[in-house]
Write a structure and sequence with these properties.
Helix 1 packs across helix 14 and helix 5 packs across helix 7. This protein has 14 helices and 12 strands. The strands form 2 sheets. It has a 7-stranded parallel β-sheet with strand order 8-7-6-9-10-11-12, with helices on both faces. It is about 40% helix and about 15% strand.
C-alpha cells in the first residue's frame, strides 16, 4: 500500500528536488501554503481521510483541531528542528509519531553567522550603500581584525559547534554558554564555558544558537544585556523569543550595543500566514505584534542588519533536509522510535 503524504510550505527549490527524486511507494501532494485551522477547508474529505503523513516547516500550526480532522494520520514530519507549533499532547494521545531534523541547516546557519560577523565588523553594507548613493567617500568604515576579537557563543549544539570551528579558523578567541558542556569542543578548540552573565561582559561579539523553550524565553533580558561589554556586536540566527527585543533596542540606541544582526522574526506564523488577524488577536499574538514594532525600529538604523530567516536557505541544506525527511518518515513507518520526539 502506498503511503500518502501531504507536504506544506513547499518552496520552488523543494519542488524541483521532489521532481528529480521520486520516492517509490509514496504518494506526495505538495502545498505552498501553511497548514493551520484556516487551511483545513481547502483539503478534500478524501485527503483528510486517507493521509498518513503530514510534513511541515516552521510556519504551520498543528493544533488539536487540525489533528482531529485527519482520520488516519500516523506521522507528523517537521522539516526543521523546532516543533513548538505542534500540539504534542494530542499527538501522544492519538499515538501520532512526531519526527524532526535537529541538525537542519546547521552548517548553513553557521556560515551565515560568520558572514554577518564579517559584515558588521568590516562595515560592508554601510560602505556599499554609500557608494550606491553617489556620495563621495571621505574615509571612515574602520573595522577590526577578527583574530583580535573574542566571540561569545550562546548555545553549543550542532550549529554553535560549527560556529566555533569556523571562528577558530579566523584565529578568534571563543567562549561559550550552555547548560551542557561539550568536552570535544574544549579539547579541539580551547573553548571556555562560563555563565551567560560573564560571557556578555567578556565577548566583543555574541551570537545566539540556543533552542527555544520556556527556560530560554527572554534569556537575554535587562539583567544580561545591561551588563554586556560596551560596543558589543550582537547576532541572533536562532529564535527571536530568546531575546527581549525592547531591551535590546534600548541598549542599541544608547550605543552600548554597537551593531546588531537579526535573522529571526517574532512569532513567524503571525508574520507570514495569519489571514484574518483581527479575528485572532489572542494575548500571545498581541505580544508578537508588539515585538514586531521593535523590529521595525531596528530597520531604521544603518548599524542593524535584519534578514527574513534565510540563514538556513542554501540548496545543499534543502536537498539534505528533504532526504533526511524521507528517511525519518520511513524509519517511523517501520516502528523505529529512535528518530521520534513522541
Amino acid at each position: 500500500m502506498a503511503i500518502n503524504i501531504l507536504m506544506f510550505e513547499i518552496k520552488e527549490a523543494e519542488k524541483q528536488y521532489l521532481e528529480e527524486h521520486p520516492f517509490e511507494g509514496y504518494n506526495i501532494t505538495t502545498f505552498e501554503e501553511c497548514l493551520d485551522e484556516d487551511f483545513l477547508h481547502n483539503l478534500s474529505p478524501e485527503l483528510l481521510e486517507n493521509t498518513h503523513v503530514i510534513s511541515i516547516f516552521n510556519n504551520s500550526t498543528v493544533t488539536k483541531e487540525v489533528l482531529k480532522n485527519f482520520k488516519n494520520l500516523r506521522i507528523i514530519s517537521v522539516r526543521a528542528a523546532h516543533f513548538d507549533h505542534i500540539c504534542i499532547s494530542t499527538c501522544e494521545d492519538k499515538n501520532i509519531a512526531v519526527v524532526n531534523i535537529p541538525q537542519f541547516g546547521a552548517q548553513s546557519v553557521a556560515e551565515y553567522t560568520i558572514g554577518l560577523i564579517i559584515n558588521l565588523v568590516r562595515n560592508i553594507i554601510p560602505a556599499n550603500n554609500l557608494i550606491k548613493s553617489g556620495e563621495k567617500y571621505f574615509g571612515g568604515f574602520l573595522g577590526r581584525d577578527l583574530d583580535n576579537l573574542t566571540l561569545g557563543i550562546a548555545g553549543t549544539g550542532i550549529t554553535g559547534a560549527y560556529v566555533c570551528k569556523f571562528a577558530k579558523a579566523f584565529g578568534m578567541k571563543v567562549i561559550a554558554y550552555d547548560t551542557k558542556t561539550k568536552q570535544e569542543l574544549i579539547d579541539k578548540y580551547e573553548l571556555q564555558y562560563m555563565p551567560l552573565s560573564d560571557l556578555v561582559k567578556q565577548a566583543d561579539i555574541v551570537t545566539v544558537h540556543l533552542d527555544y523553550m520556556p527556560e530560554t524565553y527572554h534569556l537575554f533580558d535587562e539583567e544580561i544585556l545591561s551588563n554586556c561589554k560596551d560596543g558589543l556586536y550582537f547576532i541572533n540566527t536562532s529564535k527571536s523569543e530568546i531575546v527581549d527585543l525592547e531591551v535590546l533596542l534600548k541598549y542599541f540606541e544608547t550605543g552600548k550595543i554597537k551593531k546588531i544582526a537579526l535573522d529571526t522574526s517574532p512569532c513567524e506564523s503571525i508574520c507570514y500566514n495569519c489571514k484574518n488577524l483581527s479575528d485572532k488577536l489572542y494575548p500571545s499574538n498581541l505580544e508578537c505584534l508588539n515585538q514586531m514594532e521593535f523590529i521595525k525600529k531596528f530597520c531604521k538604523h544603518e548599524n542593524a542588519i535584519i534578514t527574513p530567516c534565510i540563514a538556513y536557505a542554501t540548496q545543499d541544506a534543502i536537498d539534505n533536509n528533504l532526504t533526511q525527511t524521507m528517511i525519518n518518515i520511513k524509519k517511523a513507518m517501520n516502528g523505529d522510535r529512535m528518530c521520534r520526539i513522541v
